């Protein structure tokens, strides 16, 4: 998680062991950066706010508040961040699947990290009195206002409506929160947090019925705490121009603009009838902490993900409660959402709020959340991919599969079901060429060689192409069909980029970007043996179709143990052997389902004391074998074809001439059509749906491509050539939506 405080300088060794500090560069010369102060919180301040223990303790309010250090004012804004989950360096039997722990599931390891035992890390697990008819909680009112600039005492703020704004990295969110006790008695609290949080939520869903009250997964990948707005032991200088005394609690200090009270006393009581105001400022970071993706630490999982999905059970501020919620069709799972918001949380003890419990414990007395839509720019991901490409993803995946197979080989040998030398075929998402039968094998190898040679003559490697090959067969009324040639559809292996288009509500402050067109070159080839049949008729192309596949994957429990590439979603080279769809489910999920079942069987047969399998490896296999996937196929209502051989354009593919390859082997013939497919994402529509609009982005949203530890969103084109004889050649092409 990220926890924010403004500070500068070297942190103490004690602080380095728990949260991680990372400097986020601000805009040079920014008014916000110059106006806001920075502090280095003392260890006691950190322990009493960010790292406040989960178990209530008695605190002595007679002592003076602790000191804190003032950092140089003219510095870039920085973030105090705490890990969501930090791995332990201790090696023990707990790292392996043990017999007494194994009950058809993986037992989660208990974290010994201090952060995991804090209120802030577990606030979503506390009893939430905002959802209950608790009489004390109902007397608390929280409101949040978003302002254009940094809030200052005595200065009239300019309010803005962020519901029409999409925020990105480096953007500031300014405003203030008000808290009011409407009862006639003081209300005691233990902590007030003012946060900017990014949360992934997966709700329980049974047979399509979603239960919003019981989340299955809550993953807080971003948690920024404003120490100035949150309650703390010291009077902190929020602005660079402030020069306050840290032990001065500023009793009865008010904002002349509206008369609200700016300070909460050391005894932590919200007095009746008093409206308290807490100023806040947050800056969206460029990326997440490295240890937010623990234990895998994948670079692509550290990018800021976009807002996606529909949140449920959000406690909105009074000022926007009841306002119309804009539902965005972004093709997310119905039970899954990634949301950002400015959140205010009041923490108290159950005894102070008359909440029945066996022993005194912390409860979430009141909370309020102001939703903020975040759509990050892709420049960070682009810079990352310059030095980190799909080959790195492929190598890691291969090493992971090798580790799983090695465990299986050991287990089979121990169970006397096979030898260590016997291996299953390696799983790899690339270079997967399936053969379609012994009778066509020889012709396929020759055709593949001739087409590859033709490609190499163009000074390009055959491995740099996505290709689909299918046998052409002559059908007879009596007897089986007989193959006489191959049809091939190929395109250069590259990723195509398109610009993210904001929903209509968010376009008023951002000009509409029209970079949604794609121009994809293809080559349709026909190969046959001259000895196989006389008077060969060249295939007749009936029509071409194109679809944009919106692919979403989600883990049901554990962090995804790999980075997903397009080559895991479809094969780069494929020969039709049977009518089966090759996609992420068949390439990744299904094999790991088999791996998981075999590992379970071996553990039961051999015993966990004999076959030592690390918990992490077992969880990773289970995660991949149980990934949920969702495919939405958007068909292109319009497409244009042009020839690469100088023919007039646009035109029908059947009108483009077949060109013979003069360098082909004399015993064979190779013909090809070269064409370019011109597509525009604005022309997409749900498959089978009749539409009348001219721009699909007025009705749907394609969020930028992203992936994190639990959710991934990728896009790719599915282009098919339909022949009059009934054969269909299909090639998939990677597409990345950028912002």
From TrEMBL:
<dbReference type="InterPro" id="IPR022794">
    <property type="entry name" value="Bul1_C"/>
</dbReference>
<feature type="domain" description="Bul1 C-terminal">
    <location>
        <begin position="700"/>
        <end position="738"/>
    </location>
</feature>
<protein>
    <submittedName>
        <fullName>Piso0_003931 protein</fullName>
    </submittedName>
</protein>
<dbReference type="Pfam" id="PF04426">
    <property type="entry name" value="Bul1_C"/>
</dbReference>
<feature type="region of interest" description="Disordered">
    <location>
        <begin position="419"/>
        <end position="439"/>
    </location>
</feature>
<feature type="domain" description="Bul1 N-terminal">
    <location>
        <begin position="28"/>
        <end position="417"/>
    </location>
</feature>
<dbReference type="Pfam" id="PF04425">
    <property type="entry name" value="Bul1_N"/>
</dbReference>
<feature type="domain" description="Bul1 C-terminal">
    <location>
        <begin position="519"/>
        <end position="635"/>
    </location>
</feature>
<dbReference type="InterPro" id="IPR007519">
    <property type="entry name" value="Bul1_N"/>
</dbReference>
<dbReference type="InterPro" id="IPR039634">
    <property type="entry name" value="Bul1-like"/>
</dbReference>
